């Protein structure tokens, strides 16, 4: 691991009232978050002593008193110590200024207990382990939490050196390297694609097939108009009007309408039965584009997706949050494919999992970073700690329950079109047979009523009902 030597400072002082000067220097370092500063005291051009400060100790979290590090006599140091001793291994439960970016599922805050909010999420668990291993605290204050979802506000706190580090699903980026120290040894957030299934899954959907709701509404409307026309003709007959010029065209139009509707319905059913159904959903970008899908996502992912050549001319970036992109996917009947973080499991709160599927493989992996103020003496120590967490599988343990791809793979109907099953067809046939049977019974009763008076009375009664 490369050491960042630009974070180490050495100042040479002449042996004259040095204690007061060193204390002022160390106080400035604490305020400016500079940890590694040593002071060499010289006398007659010879180095005699080396001092430093230990900000965090058992008794004080801002100790600026000079501590003797080594003494130089006869051309060599008397004590075998490192020139810059490690200062960030143990913080003695001193509080660090942590910027918490509320960004589900990476970082969430439960405000049930106002005096002591609770953290949860992927990076909340990692933060707690780091705090335990490095023995620091991070008290959560209510002040400023209303702005904790504002990315730029959080970044400004860090760039102004008002905080030590930031956590909460922040992506690594080349532009951000100029302003912040980015820990690249964190974890990857995968970008995957969510698409809507097309299915007919209910008896109602099967019975209404092949027409949609609007078509059936028009058909029912025409039937109602027919009934109204018949009532009008009946009323005109009672008033001894000649209704021939009305009845004949009306009957012809009605018969033609029935013919058109029946032909369309039978044709659609025939097409449905003859054509191959259960077309598999696309499982990658090429198949989705060939099938006419348009990709949508939120604008914050534009810099990362610009590297994917296949998506450049086929992706719409919406300047909005993830929830609104999901609503567009749900409400719109067009072939939209939504690009989303693989660990955004809150997606399942908006939709029915049966109606959606995800690509088997993610599009691209984006590194999630722990952001530190630049320069920061914490960078090297944090990289060591996070590397150990990775090696021992702790980070994988925290992220495994936040994978959309994993959740959909465990779902039983993964990548299966919900075509009409045999049980559903049998159910429809049963209803059809029942209705045909009732029709035959009605026909028989109608025929019997022509010969038997009592049956005619029953039929007249039924007609009135």
Radius of gyration from the alpha-carbon trace, in angstroms: 38 Å
Distance between the termini: 90 Å
Strand content: 15-25%
Give the beta-strand count. 17
Spans of 5+ residues with little confidence (pLDDT < 50)? 1-5, 412-418
What does this structure look like?
- The protein has about 475 residues and is an alpha/beta fold.
- Among the domains are: about 5-75; about 435-465.
- The protein has helices spanning about 20-30, 120-135, 150-160, 205-210, 215-240, 245-275, 285-290, 300-305, 320-330, 345-350, 380-390, 395-400, 405-410, 420-450, 455-465, and strands at about 10-15, 35-45, 45-50, 65-75, 75, 95, 100, 110, 120, 135, 165-170, 180-195, 295-300, 315-320, 335-340, 355-360, 365-375.
- Helix 5 packs antiparallel against helix 6 (about 245-275) and helix 14 crosses helix 15.
- The radius of gyration is 38 Å and the shape is rod-shaped.
- The protein starts with 7 loop residues before the first strand and ends with a helix.
List the helices and strands and how they pair.
Layout: E1 8-14, H1 18-31, E2 36-43, E3 46-52, E4 67-73, E5 76-77, E6 94-95, E7 98-100, E8 108-110, E9 118-120, H2 122-134, E10 136-137, H3 151-159, E11 165-171, E12 180-196, H4 203-208, H5 213-238, H6 244-274, H7 285-290, E13 294-298, H8 302-305, E14 315-318, H9 322-331, E15 336-341, H10 347-350, E16 356-358, E17 364-373, H11 379-391, H12 394-399, H13 404-410, H14 422-451, H15 453-464
Parallel strand pairs: 1-2, 6-10, 7-11, 13-14, 13-15
Antiparallel strand pairs: 2-3, 3-4, 4-5, 8-9, 11-17, 12-15, 12-16, 12-17
Helix pairs in contact: 5-6, 14-15
């Amino acid at each position: 691991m490369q050491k960042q030597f630009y974070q180490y400072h050495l100042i040479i002082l002449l042996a004259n009232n040095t204690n007061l000067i060193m204390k002022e220097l160390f106080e400035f370092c604490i305020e400016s978050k500079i940890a590694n500063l040593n002071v060499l005291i010289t006398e007659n051009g010879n180095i005699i002593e080396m001092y430093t400060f230990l900000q965090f100790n058992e008794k004080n979290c801002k100790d600026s008193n000079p501590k003797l590090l080594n003494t130089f006599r006869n051309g060599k140091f008397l004590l075998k110590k490192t020139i810059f001793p490690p200062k960030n291994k143990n913080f003695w439960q001193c509080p660090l200024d942590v910027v918490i970016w509320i960004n589900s599922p990476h970082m969430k805050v439960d405000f049930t207990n106002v005096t002591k909010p609770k953290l949860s999420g992927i990076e909340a668990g990692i933060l707690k382990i780091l705090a335990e291993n490095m023995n620091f605290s991070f008290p959560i204050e209510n002040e400023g939490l209303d702005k904790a979802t504002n990315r730029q506000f959080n970044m400004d706190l860090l760039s102004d050196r008002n905080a030590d580090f930031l956590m909460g699903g922040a992506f690594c980026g080349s532009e951000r390297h100029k302003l912040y120290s980015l820990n690249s040894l964190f974890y990857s957030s995968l970008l995957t694609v969510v698409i809507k299934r097309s299915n007919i899954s209910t008896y109602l959907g099967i019975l209404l097939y092949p027409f949609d709701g609007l078509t059936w509404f028009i058909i029912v409307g025409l039937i109602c108009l027919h009934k109204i026309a018949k009532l009008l003709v009946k009323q005109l007959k009672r008033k001894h009007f000649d209704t021939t010029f009305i009845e004949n065209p009306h009957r012809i139009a009605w018969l033609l309408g029935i013919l058109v509707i029946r032909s369309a319905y039978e044709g659609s059913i025939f097409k449905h039965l003859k054509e191959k159904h259960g077309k598999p959903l696309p499982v990658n970008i090429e198949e989705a584009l060939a099938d006419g899908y348009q990709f949508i996502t939120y604008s914050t992912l534009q810099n990362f997706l610009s590297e994917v050549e296949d998506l450049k001319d086929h992706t719409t970036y919406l300047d909005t949050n993830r929830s609104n992109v999901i609503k567009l996917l749900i409400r719109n009947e067009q072939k939209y494919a939504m690009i989303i973080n693989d660990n955004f499991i809150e997606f399942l709160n908006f939709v029915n999992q049966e109606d959606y599927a995800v690509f088997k493989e993610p599009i691209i992996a984006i590194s999630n970073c722990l952001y530190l103020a630049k320069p920061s003496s914490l960078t090297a120590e944090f990289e060591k700690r996070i590397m150990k967490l990775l090696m021992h599988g702790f980070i994988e343990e925290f992220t495994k329950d936040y994978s959309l791809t994993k959740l959909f793979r465990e779902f039983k109907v993964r990548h299966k079109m919900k075509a009409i099953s045999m049980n559903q067809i049998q159910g429809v046939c049963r209803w059809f047979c029942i209705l045909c049977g009732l029709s035959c019974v009605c026909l028989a009763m109608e025929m019997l009523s022509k010969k038997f008076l009592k049956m005619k009375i029953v039929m007249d009664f039924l007609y009135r009902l």
